[in-house]
Amino acid sequence: MQLDRDAAWELLSEYTQGENLRKHGLAVEAALHGYARLFEEDETLWRVVGLLHDFDYERWPSLDDHPFRGSEILRERGYPDVVIRAILSHADRTEVKRESRLEHALFACDELAGFITAASLVRPSKSVLDLEAKSVKKRMKDKAFARGVSRDDLRLGAEELGLPLDEHITNVIGFMREVAETLGLRGSL
Question: What does the mean pLDDT of the chain come to?
Answer without folding.
Answer: 96
